[in-house]
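Saturday, quiet lab. Running sequence design on the structure tokens for the scaffold JK sent over.
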């Protein structure tokens, strides 16, 4: 979970606050004060459009330091190199759709975007935008690219926007941004030494060379888990069915299509792993016989597909496991808790993430999800609707509480085999 910034000392830390051209630029003034209150030094860098909303003088007075705005004026002091070099974190708040696009594409046409290209420190972006821009496919794709590259995105909130409309796009609250900055500086590596085997996405079960049986999984939940585990210090292998997503950087991806291929890939890497998370929506049935040629339409005749069960990967892993922590999902449309409890027990899991896939804004394909976690002791916790990335961190928090000494011992054994 990205913790809210409460009492995290930033004493001695140097925050570069990048302000881009959004009406929410005025809220960056509050952030300067909050960073100073927590002990940081703040250097504000503004884009040209940001200066149309708030004057540099406001930030100069608040931060007590000159505000850089122009690549060419700053060139003498090589600010595009020296400022990021000395920074502990760069926080872009608010980040416009335009600035996210520039970052994703690696453009450096002003001081702030050039600094991002030279930065070695963590980068946190808090987007803010109106008029449905946040859900535009281009913005979604750029955000995915940035996340995959390790940029921390503090999702905007839903609510009234400057235009008078309501929707997703309000700058996240101050505490969430401070929390993300604190985590980026003092990032938790609580899963370091562990090896995660994570499945994601749907499977395709061929009917003939052009048709298949599948489901609506986009892979977002599994990819978010892979990214969260990697950023918390774990080595991660992601076994992914067909998706349109970019795998997170630093994660080994094994691309599969069918349930059979996913089974084989998971079993092949099981001995390597210390934690297994099955977020994939594996098809439960497949055609008994896939036709070699495209099936032809037959005028007056209904066609029946003969189906057979696929292997239950989780149950197989549960039977074969050697101390691995096992986390499954339950995608339900009714009787969420009883059905999930039944799966937890029958599949021999340590933790199950039950999602009601009919809930508005959650489940298949959406950016957000809500879940009920049930652990092997029967403890139930509700996680209300939030971004899949935040939910992933909370699932990892719950999993961390369940790691018995045996799982730690396994991770240590695996580590010593590597040496
Ligand atoms: O991918 P997204 O668009 O982000 O959507 C996320 C999600 C809704 C797919 C995800 O949150 C989710 O619920 N994944 C599990 C979907 C599913 O197949 O649920 P299930 O209740 O049918 O299966 C229970 C568990 O058994 C799951 O962990 C599943 O991976 C596993 N399983 C299922 C069938 C099978 N043959 N082998 C399995 O291991």
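Result came back. Writing it out in full:
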């Amino acid at each position: 979970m990205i913790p809210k910034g409460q009492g995290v000392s930033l004493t001695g830390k140097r925050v570069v606050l990048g302000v881009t051209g959004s009406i929410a630029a005025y809220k960056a003034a509050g952030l300067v004060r909050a960073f100073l209150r927590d002990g940081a030094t703040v250097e504000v860098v503004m884009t040209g459009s940001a200066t149309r909303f708030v004057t540099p003088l406001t930030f100069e007075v608040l931060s007590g330091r000159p505000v850089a705005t122009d690549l060419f004026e700053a060139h003498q002091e090589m600010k595009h190199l020296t400022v990021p070099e000395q920074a502990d974190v760069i926080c872009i708040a608010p980040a416009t759709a335009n600035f996210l696009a520039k970052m994703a594409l690696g453009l450096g046409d002003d001081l702030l975007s050039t600094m991002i290209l030279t930065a070695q420190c963590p980068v946190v972006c808090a987007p803010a935008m109106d008029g449905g821009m946040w859900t535009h496919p281009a913005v979604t794709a750029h955000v995915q690219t940035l996340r995959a590259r390790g940029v921390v995105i503090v999702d905007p909130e839903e609510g009234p926007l400057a235009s008078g409309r309501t929707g997703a796009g309000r700058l996240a609250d101050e505490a969430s941004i401070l929390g993300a900055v604190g985590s980026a500086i003092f990032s938790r590596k609580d899963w370091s030494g562990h090896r995660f085997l994570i499945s994601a996405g749907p499977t395709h079960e061929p009917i003939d060379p052009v048709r298949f049986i599948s489901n609506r999984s986009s892979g977002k939940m599994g990819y978010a888990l892979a990214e969260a585990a990697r950023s918390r210090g774990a080595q991660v292998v992601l076994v992914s069915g067909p998706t349109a997503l970019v795998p997170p950087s630093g994660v080994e991806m094994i691309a599969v299509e069918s349930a059979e291929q996913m089974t084989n890939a998971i079993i092949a890497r099981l001995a390597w792993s210390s934690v297994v998370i099955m977020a994939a929506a594996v098809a439960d049935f497949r055609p008994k016989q896939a036709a070699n040629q495209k099936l032809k339409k037959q005028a007056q005749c209904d066609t029946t597909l003969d189906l057979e069960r696929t292997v239950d990967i989780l149950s197989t892993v549960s039977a074969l496991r050697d101390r691995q922590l096992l986390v499954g999902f339950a995608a339900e449309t009714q009787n969420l808790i009883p059905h999930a409890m039944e799966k937890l027990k029958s599949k021999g899991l340590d933790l199950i993430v039950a999602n009601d896939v009919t809930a508005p804004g959650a489940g298949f394909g959406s950016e957000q999800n809500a879940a009920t976690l049930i652990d092997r002791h029967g403890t139930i916790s509700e996680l209300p609707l939030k971004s899949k990335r935040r939910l992933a961190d909370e699932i990892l928090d719950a999993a961390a509480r369940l790691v018995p000494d045996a799982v730690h011992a396994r991770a240590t054994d695996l580590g010593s085999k590597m040496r």
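Notes for JK: The pocket of PMT is lined by residues 201, 217-221, 259, 278-282, 284, 310, 312-314, 328-331, 343, 355, 357, 363-365, 369 (CB under 6 Å). Residues 91 and 370 are 28 Å apart (CA to CA). Ask whether to fix the surface positions before the next round.
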